[in-house]
Every structure is written in C-alpha cells, then in structure tokens.
Amino acid sequence: MRQTVAGAVTAAVRDLVDDSDLRMIGLTIGGVYVVATVLAIAAGYDLGGIVNTLRAITVFAAGYGMLVLALNLHWGYTGLFNIGVAGFMAIGTYVTAILSAPPALSPGAGLGLPIPIAVLGGMLAAAIAGVLTALPALKMRADYLAIVTVALSEIIRLSIKSQTLAEVSVAGLTVGTGGGRGISYPAPSDAASWLIELVPGGTLLYPAGAAVGIARPVVTGLVYMLILVAFTAAFYWLLVQIGQSPFGRVLKAIREDELVASALGKDTRIFKLKVFAVGCALMGLGGYLWLGRSGFVNDLSFRPDITFFVFVALIIGGAGSNTGSVLGGIIFSGVLFYLPQFISQNFVRAARAPDTFVEALSGDLAGYLVANISALRFVAIGVLLVWLMQRRPEGILGHRIEAAAAIDLRGGRPEGGEDD
User: What are the E-state strand segments in 179-311?
Assistant: First the structure.
C-alpha cells in the first residue's frame, strides 16, 4: 500500500512538471524557499530577514546557474573536459575590474572606462585565454585539456595574487590587480540603484519596503537579484539557440563521435576552439556578475573548489541538458551549500557538542550533527556523488540529452520543452 501511494505521488509530480521546464524550475526553487522560510522563522527572523535569506539563496542559484550553463556548453554539448572554470572567471572579473576601476581607486588601479566596454573587454580576455589554452591541448587526448585547464586556473590565481602585478605601469598608465589586497572597482550591483532611479516611480520601492520592515539595502539587493536571474535566463536562451543551430549540431556530433564528425568534412578542431571561447567568455561574465557583484575581489574568490562545485551542480542536473543545468545549480547552491551554512549559523546549540563522531554516537548525536553541519555538507556532497554514479549517472535530466540530428530519431521530447 505504501509503495502504491509513493508511486502515485511520484507519477503526479512527474505529470505536473514533465510538460513544462519553467514549472519544473519554479517548483524546485519554490521548495527551497519553503524550507528556508521555515528555518528562518524558527531562527526568529522578521520579514526583512526572511526576504534577505530568500534573496541570498536566489543570488547563489542564479550565479551557479550561469556558470553551470557555461560549463554545459563545454562538457555537456561538446565533451570538452574543462576543469579550470575558476581561472576563466578570474580573468573575466579582473580584466573588467581593471578596465572599469578609476585610476585613483585603491587597492589596485584601473583605466576608468565605461562599464559596458569593460564588461566586453573582460569577456574578450576570457575568450582569448580559452583559445590560447585549448589550442595546444586539443591536439592531444581530452585528458590533457583537463590537466592544462586546472593548471592554468592555479597559475591565474597565483598571478593575480602576486605583488609583481599589484601595480604595473604601461605606456604611462598604471594598472594592476592589487595583489593579495584585491582590487576595488565600480560594483555591478550599483546597477540596481541606477535601475530603480531610472524606472518611473521606482524610488517608491524604498518606502514601501520600509513599511513592511525591509531595509533599503535589501530592496536594492532584490533588484540586483532580478538582474542576475535575467542574465541566467539569457544564458539559457543563448544555449538553446546554439544547441538548435547547425553549429550546435556539429558540437553534439563531436561529443558523440569526433571521428565521424571529421569524416563528414567538419574541422572539429576549429569548432572546439570556437565553443571553448564562447564558454570561457560566459564564465568570465558570470564571475563578474556574481562573485564580483560587491565591487571588490581578491584571489580567494577564485579558489579551485569553485570549479569542483560547478561540476557537482552539472552532474546533479545532468550534462547536456540546459534545464538540468539550472536545476543542478538550484539544488547544489540551495540544498547542499547555503541551507547547511544557514543552519550552522543559527541553530548551533549553546551547550558544548561532542568533540568527535565516536563520542556523539553514545551521547548527543543530534547536537554534533547540527554543530558540524557546515563541514558535514561536504560529506553529503560526496555521498550524493557516489549515489548518482551508481544509481543515476546521467543526473536528473541527463536522459534528455540533445541528439546531434536536427530531428531526434529516438522519439524523445526536445530539450527545454514548451518553455524554450
């Protein structure tokens, strides 16, 4: 009887989301919101605190969503094993910062260019770095691309940390990364204040928020959150267009069998270089919009674990699926990353928890788990990865991987559903 009920519930949920990817994404983030709201209420948060918590979750989800979509273009569409995501994020963010930072701004030094030009420059720099990285590596097996990209990522991080590049004079202009101090620049989140001022009646958001206990910075943060969500949607739309184009079909043919694609007259090396450049440019933009949103970054923002997290999110959602990439970003950032940290910060018991897990087994196991939940989330990530590899290696929506043919001869439903 219990199995029958569980099967009926599963079938009902599948019917509810199977015909709409937008509904699937909405229900997933909605479920995270419900859990977060309950936890925030239990922690004694007022309305402003609850809204700010949901805002933070959405910002994390949008940030990971952009990066996972960019990685999906490499790994899911083309089969390129890029594990240097953090490095390309750093290039895009730092070049944008250097180009936009006023010359007198410290730490670091910039050129004071308009932000749109700086953003384009950052994306171009990340794309060029991607091409230069892939150019020699693509002559060899795919494993070497992974080695080259992870090595480059660390080289980039250590280079921007170096005092040698903290301030450099070039043709009478002083630019620099700020070294270990980091670099300050006009914050992209300031676009939220500009947008509020631009829209007629937008400034009414501030008194309206204050009337219900939502502070002015939270209101501004909510607007920037919507900007990030819009960029995530734009990333999604771009990947759908690429996937459905002749260029995208060649990419998927390379993923399935590069030898066959070459035999059909396609210069696979050129295609891989192009897609690597596009994906790296998106990673650079995503890094600037998300990790660089406050107007300050340093080398600690681009540690190798960022690449690992993005890959975990892609594995959860399913490589080759754009909707799966967004779902993976939401589940990883919300369920596996943010909420355990929230619990650790708000529900750690005042009483001293057992020092070791062995002690906890014979005592306060719940107290030990709650007190260490922020660290134990990495254990949970490992357990989840092992389970996925054994039970569902394709991820949540990996079974919907797009075929290389213009028409899916397998008879499956096109990726993205009715909402593409």
Answer: 183-184, 296-297
The amino acid present at 418, given as its one-letter code, is E
- Considering only CA atoms, which of 109, 132, 88, 147 is closest in space to residue 288? 88
Supply 126's token pair.
């990340």
Residues 291, 302 contacting (CB under 8 angstroms): yes
Question: How many CB atoms are closer than 10 A to CB 210?
Answer: 14
Q: Which residues of the chain have pLDDT under 70?
A: 1-19, 104-109, 140-142, 170-171, 348-371, 401-420
What's the pLDDT tens digit per position in 155-185? 999 999 998 888 877 667 778 888 888 898 9
Contact 296, 28 (CB under 8 A): no
Angle of helix 246-263 versus helix 216-244 axis, rounded to 10:
40
Cβ-in-10-Å burial (0-12, 13-18, 19+) of 180 comes to middle
pLDDT in tens, 383-409: 888 888 888 888 888 777 666 666 555
The hierarchical CATH code for the domain 34-400 is 1.10.3470
Both tokens of residue 161? 């940390």
Peptide bond into 107 cis (omega under 30): yes
| Spatial CB neighbours of 64, under 8 Å, sequence gap ≥ 6 | 309, 310, 313, 328, 329, 330, 332, 333
**Domain boundaries of the chain, sorted by first residue:** 34-400
User: What pLDDT, in 10s, does the model give residues 60-72?
Assistant: 999 999 999 999 9
- Whether 319 and 415 have beta carbons less than 8 Å apart is answered as no
List the one residue out of 71, 74, 76 whose CA is nearest residue 272.
74
- The gap from C-alpha 310 to its chain's centroid, in whole angstroms, comes to 6
Q: How far is CA 60 from the centre of its chain?
A: 7
**Number of Cβ within a 10 Å radius of residue 170:** 8
Taking the CB of residue 382, how many other CB atoms lie within 10 A of it? Answer: 11
